Amino acid sequence: MTDPLAKQRRGWFFYGCLATSALLVASLTLAFLGLWYFKQALDEFTGTRPIPAPVAQVSAAQGEDIRQRLDAFEQAIRDHRPVAPLVLSADDLNAMIATNPRLEALRGKLFVIIQGSHLRGLVSVPLSEAGLTMFEGRYLNGLAGFALSLDNGALGVWIDNFQVRGKSLPKLLMNRIRKQNLAHRLKPDPHAASALDRLQALQVRDGKLVIVPRPD
């Protein structure tokens, strides 16, 4: 008989890591508090309408293929079995967002772009989702650049830069945003911590996200 709890945990780590991007709503909103009294700047970098990020068109077969690849890799590292690095394209990541129920909150809000060693995303987020009514009806639509790190099992995901209509956010604002590790929610979770301890590196290279397991 299949253990339903084990089935639920399978693939949790990778979907959970991607879902940390949803925390950019809170990160950006808290940073925007610094501009609340500067209405001109607020008006310049936010809008009254969302500009939804594209949602990948993925067949059921494609969605199942990426799910099986993720499950097989994660099961191998949990079992301490040798496995090749997992290589994910932007198409793979966008397929995950489009097809997995656990990532439904990101649909229309994040579309991943990988160019060379740069991980970016088209973003459209309502600032009010962080629970601050003062931003009701304001949306941040733009292009975010992400920085990743993995050091002794500690995952870091940061917004390194953000452009709205081709213009970078003010330096003061970006300094606040860069301090927010979007992956902090994973730290206390034992399943995520266990999986992270079995990884050696997280790299963005040649237009791909490469997840390298520790050699046993």
Put simply, the count of helices is 8
Query: Largest sheet, described in full?
Result: 5 strands, antiparallel
Structural class: alpha+beta
Tally the beta strands: 8
Helix content: 25-40%
> What is the approximate shape?
globular
Order of helices and strands: HHHHHEHEEEEEHHEE
Give me the side-by-side strand order of the main sheet.
2-3-4-5-6
Give the low-confidence spans: 1-9
Give structural attributes.
single chain; alpha+beta; five-stranded antiparallel beta sheet; three-stranded antiparallel beta sheet; 8 strands; 34% helix; disordered N terminus
General description of the model:
There is one protein chain. The chain is α+β, with helices and mostly antiparallel strands and 216 residues long. The protein has one domain. Helix content is 34%, strand content 27%. The chain has 8 helices and 8 strands, in the order αααααβαβββββααββ. A 5-stranded antiparallel beta sheet has the order 2-3-4-5-6. The longest helix has 19 residues. The two termini are 30 Å apart. The N terminus is likely disordered.
Task: Kindly summarize this structure in a few lines.
Mean pLDDT is 81; it is low at 1-9. The chain has one domain (4-213).
Write the topology of this structure.
Blueprint: H1 4-9, H2 12-19, H3 24-32, H4 39-45, H5 60-78, E1 86-89, H6 90-99, E2 110-115, E3 118-126, E4 139-151, E5 154-164, E6 167-168, H7 171-177, H8 190-197, E7 199-205, E8 208-213
Antiparallel strand pairs: 1-8, 2-3, 3-4, 4-5, 5-6, 7-8
Helix pairs in contact: 3-7, 5-6
